User: What shape does this take?
Amino acid sequence: MKHIPNFITSLNLASGFIAVILAANGDLTAASWLIVAAMIFDFCDGFSARLLKAYSDIGKELDSLADIVSFGVAPAVILFRLADNSCGSLFSGQGILAAGALPVVSHLAVVIMPVFAGLRLAVFNIDSTQSVSFKGLPTPANAIGVISLVLSASYSESDFLRSLTGSPVFIAIYSLLLSVLMVTRIPLLSLKAKNLGIRGNEGRYILIALVIISAIVLGIKAAPLIIPLYIISSLIAGYGFGSFAKGDPPENSSHNKPVRP
Assistant: This one.
């Protein structure tokens, strides 16, 4: 029973690896769904570990390695392929030197994402101040920022969203923005709460309300708004209600370590 959480984490890693392969071969929609599967496994490993009380040092390391692949590398490969689609591949024809400044910049901007995801996870693993709220964008949220754009553009048939995914300038800026957010110290909500009361959960309920309203109004096209709404709700909770200071600490999202005091 004690190996069940690590097995589920391995499914997270496997899903992320398959997502990398699919994205590298141009199937960005399927790759995005595999990242969704990785997120489900990432949630379930922590849930099963708390249920079975199966914490381990191996789980701690495995969880971080899986998250780097599924929520750092895989989203970056998706963005890299979008850059390929928008301005041509750097690894075909005459190569990087003949590609021009814009394609090179748009591709190199994406490279920062897995690097900063690794830094984000390394800092999180040793930072005892992130028991009530996160500091910086969590790596699963980074992945949501990427796949929500891909899936909404794929299923909504929105010319605007497709123009964004086809713009090398937007891809470069978006990649840099998500990457930098991961290593900032901006306090952001942890979505795990120990009770359903309003007090201490104001930001979570605000986020739920905003996402529901956006989905009703815009449908699938609202998906790319999830991360901006998450950040806005976090800022309202932190600075408007002081939820980060007075809320009950949620259980850590990883199965790798017990809840910090």
Remarks:
- Strands lie at 133-135, 187-189.
